[in-house]
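Duplicate of #3305? Posting structure anyway:
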């Protein structure tokens, strides 16, 4: 850590010198072009040296200006007092820099280029005129430095806020996924262990198979860390869940899947289908002994993917308002976090029987 500060200081000075060198060369080129157009004799080295000298003086003042811009930012409730401070400072610093530049330029002409007497005025105006003109330029330069720093500061703050917002959004999405898992595990354990206990009295092999399926299911849920997985992985998880449910419902639960092979590699939210399937079994199939058909369909629709879960249960009462439970509310919230307005979750009642839950998300493939 002790060696990092000098390195940052050197880099800052190098950037400042490079920036003002570029500015000085541009102004020197402009001056040379003007003299060429006017037909005057061009002194490349002298013009370049004088321009660079002027901007190097401001390079020396730049850290001080940046320090003042940090100390007195042009924002917030103290905008007006800080503006007054910068105005006074610019009116003081600009003439000081101009006087410094004037005498340095005079020394450069006399001791480096050996120009004395009237020849000096070929490149320098009189002291009063030169300092006045350069002071005006210096004031503009001061405010240019303050403005550039302020703009860079705003950009940096905006990028930091954007990064923090993205991190919080990811953390929130992960938190909601963990919350969904925490609801999933007790529910599975309660129902599945009860079914295992009953089967132990009737069919030990079936109970053993159910126990293995439950272990596989919980392991898959605990190992998931991603917010998005492939549809194939999500269907494998749902398949384990349905193995347990089919053991409870015996032959009454019939599962039909309509999933095109080319959609198996699309990304879907992790643990998105299972709550829909659980909802269909809980509110549709388990409440009506005549029900037992569960359909899972995946479709490509207008550049998006639709995940549909249908049951043939009694469905909602005519005219009733469909409401989401905790599980579906969590799914809807995660969809909003992951995809914004490009996603949706709908519950649609059938014609007299059944209910359909539909997730719509953007089409993104792992291929």
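Output from current build:
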């Amino acid at each position: 850590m002790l060696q990092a500060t000098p390195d940052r200081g050197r880099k800052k000075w190098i950037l400042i010198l490079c920036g003002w060198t570029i500015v000085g060369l541009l102004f020197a080129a402009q001056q040379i072009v003007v003299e060429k157009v006017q037909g005057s004799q061009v002194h490349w080295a002298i013009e370049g040296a004088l321009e660079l000298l002027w901007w190097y003086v401001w390079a020396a003042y730049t850290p001080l200006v940046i320090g003042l811009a940090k100390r007195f930012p042009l924002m917030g409730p103290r905008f007006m007092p800080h503006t007054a401070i910068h105005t006074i400072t610019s009116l003081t610093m600009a003439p000081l820099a101009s006087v410094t530049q004037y005498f340095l330029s005079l020394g450069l002409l006399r001791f480096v280029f050996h120009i004395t007497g009237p020849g000096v005025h070929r490149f320098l105006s009189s002291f009063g005129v030169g300092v006045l003109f350069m002071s005006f330029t210096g004031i503009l330069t001061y405010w240019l430095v303050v403005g550039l720093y302020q703009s860079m500061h705003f950009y940096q703050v905006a990028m930091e806020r954007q990064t923090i917002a993205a991190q919080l959004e990811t953390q929130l999405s992960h938190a909601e996924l963990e919350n969904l898992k925490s609801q999933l595990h007790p529910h599975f354990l309660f129902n599945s262990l009860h079914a295992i206990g009953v089967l132990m009295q009737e069919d030990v092999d079936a109970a053993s198979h159910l126990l293995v399926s439950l272990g596989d299911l919980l392991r898959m849920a605990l190992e998931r860390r991603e917010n998005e997985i492939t549809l194939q992985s999500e269907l494998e998880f749902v398949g384990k869940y349905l193995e347990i449910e089919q053991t409870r419902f015996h032959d009454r639960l019939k599962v039909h899947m309509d999933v095109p092979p080319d959609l198996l590699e699309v990304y879907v939210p992790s643990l998105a289908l299972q709550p829909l399937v659980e909802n269909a079994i809980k509110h549709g199939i388990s409440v009506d002994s005549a029900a037992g058909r569960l359909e899972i369909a995946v479709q490509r629709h207008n550049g998006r993917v639709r995940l549909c879960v249908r049951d043939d249960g009694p469905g909602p009462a005519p005219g009733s308002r469909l409401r989401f439970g905790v599980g579906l509310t969590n799914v809807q919230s995660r969809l909003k976090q992951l995809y914004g307005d490009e996603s949706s979750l709908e519950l649609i009642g059938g014609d007299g029987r059944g209910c359909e839950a539909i997730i719509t998300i953007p089409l993104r493939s792992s291929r």
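Confirmed duplicate; merging threads. The first helix runs from residue 4 to 38. Helices lie at 4-38, 44-71, 79-111, 127-202, 204-223, 231-249, 273-285, 326-339.
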